[in-house]
Specification:
heterodimer; A: Globin-like; B: Globin-like; Hemoglobin_oxygen_transport (chain B); Globin/Proto (chain B); oxygen carrier activity (chain B); heme (chain B); oxygen transport (chain B)
């Protein structure tokens, strides 16, 4: 699944706005994930997952920074996330189904914060982009 | 039978009370066809679906989106009785329409995103969780009579 030039442009444009609130949106996305899909909490037994917790904000930040890297190198997501891909494959081993769930929650957060920018075309581009990121992060699993 | 807490019923009613079934339905179906183009396979007779603009402006898409979301409203009127409410529709989707139930899940998630865009901050994580449960229950009910 490759992104067209138009899709890459759509991703980059919205990212410029999202980046200004990356930490908040990251934390909110995780909050949505843990609320709607409680099973995902099993990967964070060591975390305080209450709303506004420092660990939630910190981890949301981490996730959004990685997405930012993928946006910055949107022509070579595999290269940009190579280390993260290995981390997920050999250490974290998060079941692949969860990437779809988190992607959906990120889309919800972005839609909630930027409704006018989140046109159907932008929605499609972001869905595809996050799908690409998820593929890269799970491609070394086996 | 699915159990709904008082809080869940409240979250559903509050959101639904502010939803324009015609607008949200049209938008949800349009986004489904745009974001997941393979879903267009069920709508060969809808005319021009060649671009996002064409899809959004397509009167058949709007009409069908409204139909679908109106039907969804039946679930909300019958929260304690969703499976029987959709029994005939389930048979229809299996026997006549031949729709893979995965599409119900896709549309449910798209509806959630449309609600998030409409309600912004008011579509809290707790609100989303309740609606994820609802779209999941509806999808399950629509798939229940498949054979």
């Amino acid at each position: 699944m490759t992104l067209t030039q138009a899709e890459k442009a759509a991703v980059v444009t919205i990212w410029a706005k999202v980046a200004t609130q990356a930490d908040a949106i990251g934390a909110e996305s995780l909050e949505r994930l843990f609320c709607s899909y409680p099973a995902t909490k099993t990967y964070f037994p060591h975390f305080d997952l209450s709303q506004g917790s420092a660990q939630l904000r910190g981890h949301g930040s981490k996730v959004m920074n990685a997405i930012g890297e993928a946006v910055k190198h949107i022509g070579d997501i595999r290269g940009a996330l190579a280390k993260l891909s290995e981390l997920h494959a050999y250490i974290l081993r998060v079941d692949p189904v969860n990437f779809k769930l988190l992607s959906h929650c990120i889309l919800c957060s972005v839609a909630a914060h930027y409704p006018t920018d989140f046109t159907p075309e932008v929605h499609a581009a972001w869905d595809k982009f996050l799908s690409s990121v998820s593929s890269v992060l799970t491609e070394k699993y086996r | 039978m699915v159990h709904w807490s008082a809080e869940e019923k409240q979250l559903i009613a509050t959101v639904w009370g502010k939803v324009s079934v015609e607008e949200c339905g049209a938008e949800a179906l349009a986004r489904l066809l745009i974001v997941y183009p393979w879903t267009q396979r069920f709508f060969d007779n809808f005319g021009n679906l060649s671009s996002p603009t064409a899809i959004i402006g397509n009167p058949k898409v709007r009409a069908h989106g409204k139909k679908v979301l109106t039907s969804f409203g039946e679930a909300i009127k019958n929260l304690d009785n969703i499976k029987p409410t959709f029994s005939k529709l389930s048979e229809l989707h299996c026997e006549k329409l031949h729709v893979d139930p995965e599409n119900f899940r896709l549309l449910g998630d798209i509806l959630i995103i449309v609600l998030a865009a409409h309600f912004g901050r008011d579509f809290t994580p707790a609100c989303q969780a309740t609606w994820q449960k609802l779209v999941g229950v509806v999808a399950h009910a629509l798939a229940y009579k498949y054979h």
